[in-house]
Amino acid sequence: MEFIRILRLLAYSLLFIFTSFLANGQRCDTYEYYKKYPVTNSSATSRVSETSKPSRDTLSNEVITIPVVIHVLYNNTVQNISDAQILSQLQSLNNDYRKLNADASNVPAAFAPLAADARIVFCLAKIDGFGKATTGIIRKYTSTQSWTADDGMKFSAQGGDNAWDSKRYLNIWICNLFGRSLGYSSTPGSQAEKDGLVIQYDAFGTTGTVAAPFNKGRTLTHEAGHWLGLQHLWGDANCGDDGIADTPPQQGFNNGCPSFPHKTSCSINGNGDMFMNYMDFTDDACMNMFSKGQAIKMRSMFAAGGARNSFLNSAVCDTNSVQRGPVAIDPVETKMTVSLFPNPAIKFINIESKNASDLIGQIVKIYNMYGGVVMSQILLTQKTTIIIQHLPSGIYFLKIGEGKENKTLRFVKE
Asked: Catalytic one among 2, 50, 223, 352?
């Protein structure tokens, strides 16, 4: 009997340890993924060079829009999450990145002046790579019951779903991840076909299948931060740092919901850890801010030469982008004297005018034959190079300006 009692005690102890391990386990596999699949300097350089010269820099107060494609990979009906759950996640994500989250008022007074509106929003894509209408949600049954952080879900040949053009779309794969991980992200400079986020299906959104304490959409907020160049607050090192001046160093990650101030031997002052920051591991209900330094870092990814600069030219969330009839060329004469070359083109086109006022400050849009807007940008110089190598071969129309003062030019992409 004594032997049986010891076995029972051992079983209970193991169960307690296992339960605590799950409850306090690591919620993000990005650092482990990065160690296994590091981004080399050469791959980071090639990632930028794929878009050649960036068309423009960010504007000072520009709200950057990131088109999103959701790949829902399900093995059963529970994993096939609803549109409502997906939309609840997009709403939560946008609130967090615009500092419109209802719990922003919970930021401690010591850190409140540092809380930032990143001026970044996310939207479901409305047009696919061929100029046709899309919901931005792809659903696919898979025989794979669970996935690990080895990118298998990103390839149709492995039972997953191939990425859309990662220079114009943020790919997000929703699936059943093995073990304790709630998600992971590629980092800037990753291979195009692997670039994007992977999120556990019951940690995505604020309704439906989501399970507490990860039921407020903060897993995606966290992983999108990695995709935009942010590190964990502790820099994945003991008493480490994330390279951001206004986020204090930490001994390591925090979980659960600590009380403020939470101080350790690594704390630099009485405020302790910024555990309410989205880049820690605390429960969703205890996360409520990005810092101003983090916002600057994320926005730098879109600057000239930045790894995410190509998204400034992505117009696939434009409500006018869905497939319509052929483009009508305005017969009204215009004073604009604009030239477009080369034509036909393969990788890029140049647009130039003898008069700077014809182009500078104008909006240029490129339409496919069906009337769908496939690219859009603001012209900042008298001569602009536009990268078109990602466009399918065909006939396109480039329109500069609006109203009567506009110019439409036709070109062929080989």
From this structure: 223
Q: Which of 310, 343, 372 is the last residue of a domain?
A: 310
Whether 223 sits among the annotated catalytic residues: the reply is: yes
150 and 255 inside one domain: yes
pLDDT digits (tens, 9 = 90+) for 220-248: 999 999 999 999 999 999 999 999 999 99
DSSP summary character for residue 67: E
Residues with Cβ within 8 Å of 388's Cβ and at least 6 positions away in sequence, in order, are 345, 347, 348, 349, 366, 375, 396, 413
Distance CA 209, CA 217 (A): 12
Confidence of residue 395 (pLDDT cuts 50, 70, 90): confident
The DSSP annotation for 283-320 comes to -GGG--B-BHHHHHHHHHTTSTT-TTGGGGG--TT-TT
Instruction: Render pLDDT for 92-108 as a digit per residue (tens, 0 to 9).
Output: 999 999 999 999 999 99
What CATH number is associated with residue 289? 3.40.390.10
Tokens (6 digits) for 126: 């409305």
